[in-house]
Design goal:
The longest helix has 23 residues. This protein has 144 residues and is mainly alpha-helical.
């Protein structure tokens, strides 16, 4: 049965979590993909588009489209690096920071819902085990 296969359960968990986050962040005027970028910049402001794309698992064309839209919405701004005119870093505006804080709250609510049936010990174990699974995947992708 598919319900007992890890890849299927992970996919369904992601889809359900993502659906709730997209629905709730849409009420903030955000489009799919933008919440991840805001969270990423809230954690570390002033990143290159390439780094944001890697951390948010978005391809180059998608990140470009999303950042352009976010700049139009006055959520982010670009700053050209003086040493290399082709290099640019992305920063949150005050509005972007405010929305990022709201996104963080929404994501925490969705995370809390996801683990609401687990004890604190189980929650920590689940997170730790998933981090180990992720590390295994990332290590395997380096060798391909």
């Amino acid at each position: 049965m598919l319900d007992s296969e890890l890849h299927y359960v992970l996919m369904r968990c992601f889809n359900n979590s993502n659906k709730l986050i997209v629905q709730r962040t849409a009420q903030l005027g955000l489009y799919p993909g933008q919440p991840k970028i805001l969270e990423c910049l809230l954690e570390e402001d002033g990143q290159t588009p390439k780094n944001i794309g890697m951390r948010c698992v978005l391809d180059k064309s998608t990140i470009t489209i999303l950042l352009n839209k976010m700049e139009q919405q006055q959520l982010v701004f670009r700053q050209i690096q003086s040493a290399d005119k082709r290099s640019v870093k992305i920063y949150l505006t005050d509005l972007g920071r405010k929305k990022a804080v709201e996104v963080k709250k929404i994501c925490q609510q969705v995370d809390d819902l996801a683990v609401s049936g687990l004890s604190l010990t189980q929650q920590r174990e689940l997170t730790q085990l998933l981090q180990e699974v992720l590390s295994t995947f990332e290590e395997a992708s380096l060798h391909e």
